[in-house]
Amino acid sequence: MKTTLTKRYRFAASHRLHTSKLSDEENRHVYGKCNSPYGHGHNYEVEVTVAGPVNAATGMIANLGELDMFVEQRVIEAFDLKYLNEEIVEFRRVVPTTENICREIFRRLKGFPAARVERVRVEETSKNSFEYEEEAV
Amino acid sequence: MEGKGLPGRNAMIRITRKVEFSAAHFYHNPDLSPEENRRIFGKCNNPHGHGHNYVLEVTIAGEPDPTTGMVLDLKEMKEILQREVVERMDHKHLNYEVPELAGKIPTCEIIAVVIWKLLEPKITKGKLDRVRLYESLDLFADCTADGKASAR
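Above: the input entities. Below: the structure tokens describing the complete assembly.
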């Protein structure tokens, strides 16, 4: 049996899907409305899942206060109410699709000291969601 | 074996049933000092306790029975969840009134593990696949069979 703990967070941000690897016409074709030059925004919902043994003294996989602080500092403060394409350095060279947002959030959280971050799931809207997961090595 | 029924009848199906229960708890480890308890558990250390509306999602995996088309009759599953979980935990103080949690800190993870252990032997058709326990909309614990070790 394996036990994981998942906590939900949220941030609101704007982005534009556009890549310099494609022509303007191709960008419009691939990204459609998301290619609009002025950008647009979403209320993102983020689920962070941590895995590991349940600590015998605390009954916890990870202290939620510590997880909240880590996610808050590494992700929410950086992403909330920002233009992702410009203000998150990694998205100056990578298109901020929700797939890439998942991976970037995972990369930022991977170093959480108290437990292994197993999965990051991001809902861009209530109708679509994306997951990035790394199995234990 | 050749199936006579629908195509793909050997495919595994997962079914999930949801129940809710409301209960009180607080977090305190008598082996730690009062200061450590307050530091680790924060507001949850309040000795008067506090409560949640827990939402439990239980998933069973298996093949539908060729006669009934069911993995496990949802009526039967409802009765199992009622008997094993709701009657034990609904409107109870988890620190004091649930023997399976005695001496344990009733965090979401621990309650999910206890529920897994209560349900696993009762699921006679299909196999217990996942226990997901929501303490709030923003927090849940999952217990899953990891294929490496069976539940102790």
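Note for the figure: The domain at 13-144 of chain B is CATH 3.30.479.10 (Tetrahydropterin Synthase; Chain A).
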